[in-house]
């Protein structure tokens, strides 16, 4: 059994470039699929957020129009109810040692853009985890959290690493659109990450050693598959 830390946003809003506030949080499909698949395989999962604040679900991620229908919305809501206490009382990132875990998982939603992207405690965890070869699995907007990983000399930990993330095109056409405050893919590329992607809204995963990344919500199962294989030693 592996020990997994699921790092989740505590932000319930994102300020857009037009000054408005966009309701956000974690994306239900992504967190549920990751938690369900990994826990069903027998792995131990703990939740952590900045400051140990409650992890909010993005209300838009439970709309039938975004889940594929009412049945799926109800399934996701039911699963979240089953882990509601853990999401309401996560651990604080500041008190966590990366060496206690075999993998760090970062699901998306726009929330990570609001808090994880510049969280110093997350940056420390990611830096230590990467140095130790611990698996790091961010997907959709979760890779925004990678931006926090800055070494003491000012260099970006993931410069030169191959990964994927919610694309600028997906953000413009199905995300926060023209009011997007900044684009995660563009920011990662500017820092030196080597990005690749599949067609918009299709499953696409990139593995670069211990770094496993997924492009969008449609990649949730594939990220879980790749992480499960990695944890099994393949």
TrEMBL record:
Gene Ontology annotations of biological process type:
methylglyoxal catabolic process to D-lactate via S-lactoyl-glutathione
| GO CC term (a single one) | cytoplasm
The text of the family note is: Belongs to the peptidase C56 family. HSP31-like subfamily.
Name of the protein this chain belongs to: Type 1 glutamine amidotransferase domain-containing protein
Task: Name the keywords, alphabetized.
Answer: Glutamine amidotransferase, Lyase, Stress response, Transferase
Coiled-coil features, chain-numbered ranges: none
Flavoprotein recorded as keyword: no
Q: Which domain of life is it from?
A: Bacteria
Extract one GO molecular function annotation from the record.
transferase activity
List residues of the DJ-1/PfpI domain: 29-229
**Stored InterPro entries:** Class_I_gatase-like, DJ-1/PfpI, Prot/Nucl_acid_deglycase
Alphabetized CDD domains for the sequence: GATase1_Hsp31_like
Q: Does the keyword Ribonucleoprotein apply?
A: no
In terms of Pfam families, this protein maps to: DJ-1_PfpI
């Amino acid at each position: 059994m592996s020990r997994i830390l699921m790092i989740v946003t505590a932000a319930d809003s994102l300020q857009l470039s037009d000054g408005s506030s966009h309701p956000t949080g974690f994306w239900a499909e992504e967190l549920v699929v990751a938690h369900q698949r990994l826990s069903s395989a027998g792995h131990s999962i703990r939740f952590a957020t900045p400051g140990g604040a409650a992890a909010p679900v993005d209300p838009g991620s439970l709309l039938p129009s975004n889940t594929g229908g009412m049945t799926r919305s109800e399934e996701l809501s039911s699963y979240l109810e089953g882990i509601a206490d853990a999401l309401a009382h996560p651990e604080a990132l500041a008190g966590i040692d990366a060496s206690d875990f075999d993998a760090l998982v970062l699901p998306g939603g726009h929330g990570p853009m609001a808090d994880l992207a510049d969280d110093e405690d997350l940056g420390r965890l990611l830096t230590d985890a990467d140095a130790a070869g611990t698996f790091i699995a961010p997907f959709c907007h979760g890779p925004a959290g990678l931006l926090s990983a800055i070494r003491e000399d000012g260099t970006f930990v993931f410069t030169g690493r191959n990964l994927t993330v919610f694309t600028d095109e997906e953000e413009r056409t199905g995300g926060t659109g023209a009011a997007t405050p900044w684009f995660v893919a563009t920011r990662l590329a500017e820092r030196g990450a080597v990005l690749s992607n599949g067609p918009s809204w299709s499953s696409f995963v990139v593995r670069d050693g211990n770094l496993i990344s997924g492009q969008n919500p449609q990649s949730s199962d594939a990220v879980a598959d790749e992480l499960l294989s990695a944890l099994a030693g393949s």
